[in-house]
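Collaborator request log, item 7. Partner lab (contact: R.S.) asked for a structural prediction of Saccharopine dehydrogenase to inform their binding assays.
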Amino acid sequence: MGKALIIGAGGVASVVVHKCVQNSDVFEEICIASRTVSKCDALKEKLDGGKTKIHTAQVDADNTEEVIELIKAFGPDVVINVALPYQDLTIMDACLATGVHYVDTANYEPPETAKFEYKWQWAYKEKFEKAGLTALLGSGFDPGVTGVFTAHAQKHEFDEIHYIDIVDANAGDHGYHFATNFNPEINIREITANGRYWKEGEWIETAPLEKKEVYNLPEIGPKDIYLLYHEELESLAKNIKGLKQIRFWMTFSEKYLTHLKVLENVGMTSIEPIEFEGQMIQPIHFLKAVLPDPASLGPRTKGKTNIGCIIRGLKDGKEKTYYVYNVCDHEECYNEVGSQAISYTTGVPAMIGAMLVMNGEWRKPGVWNVEDFNPDPFMDALNKWGLPWQESHNPELLDLDLDAKEISR
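Returned to partner:
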C-alpha cells in the first residue's frame, strides 16, 4: 500500500519495525532512521528478506533540515515518530515542509523542564489543516489504546461517561535491583513530577506518588497503584463530553520506589545542569548512561502487564460500570519480537495508528488524538496484531473521592 519512515531505533522502534514487516500488505517499504545508524542496520539485518523492503538512514531528529532531506529522499506516506518526545516538533515541522502525515506515541516535552502538555502540538492544528495532512498524537498504549478504549466505551457502552480511572500495572520482574522499562530519563521525569487529576473542570495537584491505593487486577492480583499525571488525561478531559473526573494510576514496587528516592535525594534524577570536569551535564543523563538499557530487558523479564480503563456513567438512564483492558505477557512478547511487554504495548499501537492513517480510515486534516476517530477499526486491529482486549461489566471500583477517604481514616 505504501511507505513509512520510522524515526528511532530503541525498544519501541524495534517492535514497530517487526509489526510493519508482519503487515507487509500495508507497509510495502519502510526506512528505519536514527542518530545511530548501526542500530537501524542491525534491525534490517534481522528482518530483511521478506515482502517489506527495508532501508536504513542516519538522521539527527533534532535537526529539522536533516529530517526534511531524509523525507524527500525516501518519499514516505507517513512518518512514525518513536524518537524522544523532545523531537516531536522538529519532526512535525519536517512533515509540514514535505507534505507527509505524522504519527507519534507521546506528547512533546521541552528538554529543560518536565512538562507533559499537548499545547505545543495542538498549536499545529491549523497548519496541518491547511496542508491537508493528518497528525495523529499519542498512538501508543497510554496514551493511545487507553483513549481508544474510552472512545469504544463512549460509542458502544454508555450514553454518558462520568468517571474514568486508567490503571497501568506491570507485574514483570527483570531481576535487576533497579531499572526502568522505557527510556530512563523520560520515565524518571514522569514519576518524580507532581501528580495531577481532573475533577469538575479543574486540575487538582498532588505531591509525587502521594496518593496510593491497592487494586486487584485480573491475571496479576492485588498491586499498589499510585496516582500520577499522564498526558491522555488532558486530551480525554477535553474530548469526552459530560466527564466529571479522570485519573491515572501506575504500579510500582517498594524496592523500585526506595531506589528512586535515594537517587532523588542525592540529586541523580535532577535535570538541572551541573559542572563536572569542565563540562556541563544533567545528572539524569549520567544516570541514564549507567542504568540497564530498557531494550536489553526482554530476555530477562517474566510476568505480565495489565493496562485498562475503569469507566462509570449512564446507559438508558441507569448507572453502569465497565472495565476494558489488555493483559500482555513479557515472555510471549520476547519470543515474538525480541522485546519486553512495555515496548510491545507501545509499538503495536504505533503501527496500527500509522496503518489507519495510511489506508484512510483515520485520515482528516489537522492535529488529532486517538479518541477523535472511530475506535472500531483500531479495536479490531488490537485483536489481530497481538494486543487482544478483554472486558468486565462488574469491575472492582476505586474510591471516587480520595480526600474524603483520608478524612474518614
